[in-house]
Amino acid sequence: MKHILFSLFFLLGISSIYAQGPWKLKLYCSEEDIRLHIDLYEESIEVPGMEMFGPMNGYLGGNIYGVWMITSFKIQDDKTATIKLSNDLGSETQKATLTQQSDSIYALHLDGTVVVKRVVDRKLVKVSSDFKMRLQ
Fold first, then answer.
1. CA distances to 46, 98, 110, 131 from 118, in Å
2. How far apart are CA 23 and CA 10, in angstroms?
3. Per-residue pLDDT of the chain (136 residues; tens, 9 = 90+)
4. Rounded CA gap, 51 and 59, in Å?
5. Considering the domain boundaries, does residue 73 fall inside one?
6. Which among 20, 55, 82, 109 would be 20 to 30 A from 76, CA to CA?
7. Distance CA 61, CA 59 (A)
8. What angle (nearest 5°) sits at the alpha carbon of residue 98, between those of residues 97 and 104?
9. Domain count within the chain
């Protein structure tokens, strides 16, 4: 009986380790100076400047205008997830696809019309639609 209980707890422990999976990440794109912090398993990430909303599933920040919070997501499989981002004012949304390319490299593609922007020479310009991101 003790062996059965031990085995059961061991299997539950192992499954919880694998449940962390690829969707709890801190990613960074050094070329664009953009960070993506996500936890698609639970709302556990404090968004900078948005602490009043409590923990969320993540955010996109860095060299962009404002902070973009993850408002919804869908895990397609163990290598692909779609996420919906909203800016800190809630006035714009952006759908994105995150794909794992290797153990430490992910591709972030902003789907449709890109609305994420950055300030360049005191003007807002759209960012690229594709980013190569590495684990931080």
1. 22, 20, 14, 14
2. 23
3. 555 544 444 444 444 444 445 899 999 999 999 999 999 999 999 999 999 999 999 999 999 999 999 999 999 999 999 999 999 999 999 999 999 999 999 999 999 999 999 999 999 999 999 999 999 9
4. 12
5. yes
6. 55
7. 6
8. 165
9. 1
Domain enclosing residue 73, as ranges: 22-135
Alpha helices in the chain (DSSP H): 2-20
Query: According to the model, what pLDDT value does residue 21 have?
Result: 59
Of 60, 106, 116, residue with least CA distance to 83? 60
Residues linked to residue 83 through DSSP beta bridges, in sequence order: 73, 96
14 found inside a domain: no
Amino acid at 56: M
In a domain, 99, yes or no: yes
